[in-house]
């Protein structure tokens, strides 16, 4: 792991919290802490209930970023894409292989409420995913 945690600026914290809770639920990511100006989310894989992603009130329209979330299998990528669209995201690339990256790169992309490009990706071939 290269980062301990990442901070993501958002214009509307409550809207972002609702969106990320719904969109990231299929990946096992959930809210573990909430403050008036920040919300901490975690998957609990590395350190139980330690925040890996912070949403923080920006006070302005943030510059869009790209974040790729690890998925355990292709089904999680598919579920992320469906959940994010249902939560209000805009499609930026449906689930599928992206062989330009490598032979087993399976990903889906959406644009979230603040313009951030969000991706769920699995690097395993389909026959090895649980």
TrEMBL record:
Gene3D superfamilies associated with the record: 2,3-Dihydroxybiphenyl 1,2-Dioxygenase, domain 1
Domain VOC: 2-123
SUPFAM superfamilies reported in the protein's UniProt record: Glyoxalase/Bleomycin resistance protein/Dihydroxybiphenyl dioxygenase
GO MF annotations in UniProt: dioxygenase activity
Keywords: Dioxygenase, Oxidoreductase
UniProt keyword Plastid present: no
Record's signal peptide: none
Top-level taxon of origin: Bacteria
PROSITE patterns noted in UniProt: VOC
The protein, known as: Catechol 2,3-dioxygenase
Organism of this sequence: Frateuria terrea
